[in-house]
Amino acid sequence: MKLLRSIDTISGKLMIRFTIIILVTLFILAISLSYLFQNYYYGSTEKKFIDQGNKIAALLQRSLYEGNYDETLFFLRDSQRFFEGNVWIVDSKGLILVTTQQKELQGVRLNKNEVKQVFQGKIVKKRGFSYYFGEPVLFVAVPINFANKVVGAVFVYSPLAGIGSTLNDLRRLVLYAALIAIILTLILSFTLSKSFSRPLKRMQKISLNMAHGDFDERVVIESEDEVGQLAQSFNYLADKLQETIASLQEKEEQQRRFVADVSHELRTPLTSIQGFVKALRDGVYESEQDKEEYYQIILSEVKRLIRLVNDLLDLSQIELGQIKMEMEILDLKGIIKNSIRNLMPKIKDKELRIVIELADDLPLVFADRDRIEQVLINLISNAIDFTPQGETIKVISKREDDEVLVMIKDTGPGIPVEELNNIWNRFHKVDKARTRDRGGTGLGLSIVREIIRHHQGEVWVESELGKGSTFIFSLLVADK
C-alpha cells in the first residue's frame, strides 16, 4: 500500500514516465545501432574481401590462364596468413583448385548456379547458409580475367558466427551502457521529480494550515521556473488572504463595537424618556412647573434620538455610496460665511469672537455645496462647544498647490496625543459627559471624514493640550 501511495504521487508519476521514456529511447537506439553496425560491419567486410579478391585475381590470372596450377597452389598456401578470410581458387569449369581451409573441398566442382554470375564477369556477394560449410557464411566471388576472358574466380568467405561474436560484443556494450543510463536516469528523475513535488507538498501543507487559521507560513522559492512562479503566486495569495481576514476581523470588531455604541447611545435617552413618561403618568411631580420641565426633557431627548438616527443614516449612506454627490464649481468664501451665519445665535450665546481669514486669491473648488456646508457646520459647531466663553475662533482658508485648505482653530482644552487618531471613529468622545451635555452624537467627525474622502480630499487635526485644536480639510481646485 505504501508503494502504491508513493507511485500515485507527482514525483512517482514523473519518475515512472521519465524511466519509461529513457527505456524506450534506449531500446530503439540499441536496435538501430545494432542494425546500423551490422550493416556497416558486413559492408566493410565485403569491401575488404572484394579488394583482397581483386588483388589475388591480379596475381593469379596468368598462371591460371596458362594452367600452371602448382604455382597457384604454392602462392595461395604461402600467402594465406595475410588474408582477411578464407580463400578458394576456382578454375573456369567451376572446379575448386585450392583452399586455405577444408582441404577436402579441393577437387569439388561447384554447382553451375553458384558460379554462373561470377563467370559472367560480375562480382557476387552473399550472406546466408552454405551447403559446403553447414553454417551461415559471408562470401564474395571475384572473377579472374585474362585476355578479356574469365579464366577462374576467387572466393573469399568467413563464417557469420565469427562476425556475430563481434556484433554480440557490441550488443553487450550497448546493454551495459543502457543499464548505466537507467540507473542514472532513476537517480536524476528521482531528484528532478522531488524538486518539482517538494514545493507542491509544502503548498499543500500550508494550505491545510491556512484552512485551520494559520497564515504565518510561506513557501520557500527555490527557482524562477513555473513551479517557482506558482510558489510566488501562492505566497502572494496567502498574504492577500491574511490581509483580507485581518481586515474582516477588524471590521467585525468595529461592527460589534458599533452595535454596542449604538445600543448605549439609544439606551440612555430612551431610559430617560421612559422615566419621565412614567413620572408624568403616575403624577409624580410637585408643580406644573416640574411637569413642564419633564415635557421639555422628553422633547430634548426625542430630538437627540432623531439627530442620532439621522446621523447614522447619513454616515451609512455616504459610506455605501448611496448618496450621490452633486459636484459643481463653487465659491468657498460664500459657503464659509453662510455656515458661520447659521451658527451666529450659538456663537452669541457663548459671547465668542469669530475671525475669518480668507485669502484674496482663493480659487474656486469642485465640491457638493450641501455636504461641504455640513462639514463646516460640524467643525465650527465643535469649536464653539469646546471654546471657553468669551474666547476666539478662527476660520482660515488659503490655496496650497492644487488644493484649497480650510482651517477651524479653537482655543479649547486640546486633544490628548493618544486620542488624535481615535476621534474620527464612530461614537468616540474625548469627554463623553460633556459631549452628551452638548447633545452630540459622536458621529459628526466620522461624517466629516467620509464626506471629505468622497471629495478626494483629506482631513486631519493638530492639537496641543491647554492651547486648543485646529481641524484642517482640503478640497481640489476647480481649474486643476
TrEMBL record:
Signal peptide (UniProt feature, chain positions): none
Annotated keywords: ATP-binding, Cell membrane, Coiled coil, Kinase, Membrane, Nucleotide-binding, Phosphoprotein, Transferase, Transmembrane, Transmembrane helix, Two-component regulatory system
Catalyzed reactions: ATP + protein L-histidine = ADP + protein N-phospho-L-histidine
An example Gene Ontology biological process: osmosensory signaling via phosphorelay pathway
Highest taxon listed in the record's lineage: Bacteria
Protein EC: 2.7.13.3
Keyword Transmembrane: yes
Record membrane topology: Multi-pass membrane protein
Location(s) in or outside the cell: Cell membrane
GO terms assigned for molecular function: phosphorelay response regulator activity; phosphorelay sensor kinase activity; protein kinase activator activity
UniProt keyword Membrane, yes or no: yes
UniProt xrefs under PROSITE patterns: HAMP, HIS_KIN
InterPro entries for the chain: BphY/WalK/GraS-like, HAMP_dom, HATPase_C_sf, HATPase_dom, His_kinase_dom, HisK_dim/P_dom, HisK_dim/P_sf, Sensor-like_sf
Coiled coil (UniProt feature): 231-258
A single GO cellular-component term on record: plasma membrane
Domain HAMP intervals: 194-246
Domain Histidine kinase intervals: 261-479
Enzyme class: transferase
Bilayer-spanning residue ranges: 14-37, 137-161, 173-193
Predominant place of localization: membrane
Pfam families linked to this entry: HAMP, HATPase_c, HisKA
Protein name: histidine kinase
